[in-house]
Structures are given as C-alpha cells and as structure tokens.
Amino acid sequence: MSPVGIQGAQNLYPTEEIDWVVGDGLKLDFHHEFDIVHVSNFSPFTMVDSLETEQAKLISGQIMRYLKQNGLLVFVWNSRLDESDPQGTWANYSIKQIARYFEAVENANYLGTWATHSQLSTLFGSCSLSNFVTQLTAAGARFHSKTARIVAAVQKL
Questions:
Q1: pTM confidence score
Q2: Which residues have a Cβ under 8 Å from the Cβ of 3 and sit 6 or more positions away?
C-alpha cells in the first residue's frame, strides 16, 4: 500500500467515506475490518516462484484476514496473459493460473476471474467483467503482444 498508489486512488475516488491506509500490505494491524480489499499489482506476487507455493498461499491468507465475513477481495494484475517473464522481473500470469490460485483460497467463495482492458472497461462499463470481454481481451493481448488486466474476486466466508 504505497503512498503513490493511495494518492492515485484518492484522485479517482475523492470521498471522505474511505479511510486510506499506507503500509506494508502483509503486516497491517487490521483483523476482520474491511468490506472490500482491492489489491492491484501487489509486488509480493512477483516474488514467488509459483502461485502454487506455500509462500503464495500465505500471501492470500494474510490479505484475507483483513476482510469481514462476506467481505470481497478484488485482485487486479497487469499481464500479457501468456505466462512469460522475459525480463525476469514481472510475472505474466495467465487467466487460468490466477483462477486456479483464487479457487484454492481457504474459507472463501471464488466468484470469478476475467481479463479486460481499460479501453474496453470504458466501452462496456459494468459488462466489462464477462466471459465475452475476457475472450476478446485475450485475443487482443495475443495478437498485439500488449498487456491486459486480470481481475479476480473472492468473498470471505
């Protein structure tokens, strides 16, 4: 939870109804306090060898503990969707990898994983998280070798 990320979010959502917090996203002193946790390009996910490791499972567990019962975790990740890492610095997870990871989160109801792009989100609005837009985005990412956004959602039980 970086100061730059918080400032960007405050600019997008200027309201007094949101408490913005800056700190280490895995070591905050909150327990069962939030209705929604939004995680975008969270760097600990680039530091694991695989989303199937115990370390990766611990990361999701630490994030989930911030949520109230029935709270929602929204995960956003920029990726070319092809599981490559040409520079060795960024994991280009596929939609299936992210889906498998969040389907396995303990004490959670997996809601779905989608791919979208900011331009498609503007065009399709609330329909931009759909299977149709996911297929369109995946084809576009493959054809143009550009990044897309993977969005996953889970609800804490």
A1: 0.80
A2: 22
